Amino acid sequence: MLKSGVMSSLTPFSAIAEDIAALDISAITALSKAAGDPLRMQVLKVLQQNAYGVLELCQIFDIRQSAMSHHLKILANAGLVATRREGTTIFYRRNPRNGNADLQPLQQALFTSLDKAALDEALEEHLKQINKERATASVAFFNRNVSLFEENQDLIASWSDYGASVESFLDSSIGAAGTAIEVGPGYGQFLGKLCESFEHVVALDNSAEMLEQCQNRAQQQGLGNIEFILGDTELAKQRGIKADCLSLNMVLHHNPAPAEIITDCANLLAPGGVLLITDLCAHDQEWVKESCGDFWLGFEPEELTHWARLAGLVEGNSLYLTQRNGFRIQLRQFSPGSTAA
């Protein structure tokens, strides 16, 4: 639940309404009624930075599926949550845009207030357990399929098809050339360019088998200024590593908690540093989940922008590439700045 005392500091609806043009009272009532239940407010808080299925939400809140489905239906009918089917699972996310444009300021004010609230520690622990289970499954996939990594990636987007664009994007983004971090470097296709551009490069991966393959290929290329670390962004934070450039190259769609990774990356950036994200745009090709270990079917550009803003980053340059097989790739640049959401 939301911690006691927090809700009293949230902006009252009456104060919000003063800044909103006259609306259909029935529409305001429907949205307020949907948000007016304590459990539904907690669900909206949990959905702040991630999407979850019904069964996962039941596990987080320890309630029956029928009850959770009822609450989610009310939130969806009010436009507060959106659904997206990925494979056989329907995931629920907070809806950034209400279908009724007149209600958007009211909804945004609600979400902004919720973003400032704190979750009960028990719910936080349940969330960590869900994300840990997701992450374990993802790491296990890559450990099992390390020899098929390039073959699987080529099914979606081969580095030879988009790598030159990523390297050019890097050249236009570099402000300082001290330290670069690549999270999830794969077989190290981008490491050669990073080693040319930065004095010190950190290759960070939570799959031991993938990291070993990456290290072997880096040695074959004679790349000597790379530090290989088995772990995740949380470990990098604990070690106090700071980066002038941090690369997430085709990583987020494999990660169970992409918003958390972006937040960690924001904390790893040195002053004036830049976060470069290369990832898939949202698509409907569900076969990638089983064949390539994808957790998400890409992302809408607005999702990455929203998560970056929550992490205190502002958007820079963007580039979009269409692949021959119908996938689209987004190259995004973010830097420390305003936290306005």
Question: What is this structure, in a nutshell?
Answer:
The chain has 341 residues and is α/β, with parallel strands linked by helices.
Question: How does this model look, in words?
Answer:
The protein has two domains: 7-119, Arc Repressor Mutant, subunit A (Orthogonal Bundle), CATH 1.10.10; 146-336, Rossmann fold, CATH 3.40.50.150. It is 46% helix and 20% strand. The protein has helices at 13-17, 25-35, 38-46, 54-61, 65-77, 104-116, 121-144, 149-156, 159-171, 191-197, 208-220, 233-238, 258-268, 287-292, 301-310; strands at residues 52-53, 81-86, 89-94, 179-183, 200-205, 226-230, 243-249, 269-280, 313-322, 328-336. The strands form two sheets. The chain has a seven-stranded mixed beta sheet, with helices on both faces. A three-stranded antiparallel beta sheet has the order 1-3-2. Helix 10 (191-197) links the parallel strand 4 and strand 5. It is globular. The two termini are 23 Å apart. The model is unreliable at 4-11 (pLDDT under 50).
Q: What separation lies between the terminal Cα atoms?
A: 23 Å
What's the CATH C level of the largest domain? Answer: Alpha Beta
H and E order: HHHEHHEEHHHHEHEHEHEHEHHEE
Shape annotation: globular
Helix content: 40-55%
**CATH superfamily (homologous) name of the largest domain:** Vaccinia Virus protein VP39
Largest sheet report: 7 strands, mixed
Q: What is the average of the pLDDT values?
A: 85
Approximate strand percentage: 15-25%
The CATH topology annotation of the largest domain reads as: Rossmann fold
